[in-house]
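To close the section, here is one more complete example, presented without commentary so you can practise reading it yourself. The ligand is adenosine-5-diphosphoribose.
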Amino acid sequence: MSQTEQQARDWLAQARSICVLTGAGMSAESGIPTFRDALTGLWSRFDPMQLACEDGFRADPQLVWDWYASRREGVRAAQPNAGHLALAEFQRRHPGRLAIVTQNVDDLHQRAGSEGVIRLHGDILEDRWFGPCRRHVARAGNVCDPAWAEPGSPPRCGECGNLVRPGVVWFGEMLPVAALEAAERAARGCDLMLVVGTSGAVYPAAGLAHTARRAGARVVVLNPQASELDDVAHACLRGTAAVQLPKLLQAPPLH
Ligand code: APR
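Output:
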């Protein structure tokens, strides 16, 4: 074990409260592409302004819907990797000690058995109405009834034509307030923040590492490459989630 790995394990053993911030690299070894990795990242092959924002959806709902449909298939076919499983196992061994805040819209932390996962950017497997119901404004919450959705790409409301969209946070949209507040609390209250598989390019998610550092936590970045959060870290573990997390989180040998 390297000196940095041992140092991180020591800090983990001393930490009463751990906050893990995960990004797309967490799911890379499960076969789900990241966004900014050169060549393989989604944004090196697709235009996020065409596919991951409201204007793009308005301009071509079918293109966006079909793109997310193919990503959904990839998520459903993927399996949690050893990193997801190691986090879930640690939570089982130490109830209430480790909180996961994820930028990922897949469900691999949940399928690995992790509890209480805070999802900053939504859920790719969830559907939402795109706009308010244009016909039943008096309806509670001004929302169409899913029973009225007619099949299509995307499905639409048979009553008012409203479109269905994926339940993810698009560029330019606000993050779910409750999730962000819970994430801020976890970042402020932890003794150790573990930042796994994120470039640190997107705020407010990346700001959680700064929040933890300012609140006095030790910050460890786990990433095979340099990231924009390396300068916030007390230590950087150069490696992948599925290899490094099991080493970091494994129970100490019984003496
Ligand atoms: N293990 C750990 N980290 C990895 C692995 C791996 N196996 N493979 C790649 N990485 C690292 C990359 O080095 C990179 O730093 O994961 C990071 C992925 O960065 P991004 O692709 O930018 O993904 P992320 O940081 O999660 O993006 C944040 O941007 O587009 C939005 O909403 C999207 O949630 C996403 C947000």
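Once you have examined the tokens, check your reading against these statements. The chain has ten helices and ten strands. The mean pLDDT is 94.
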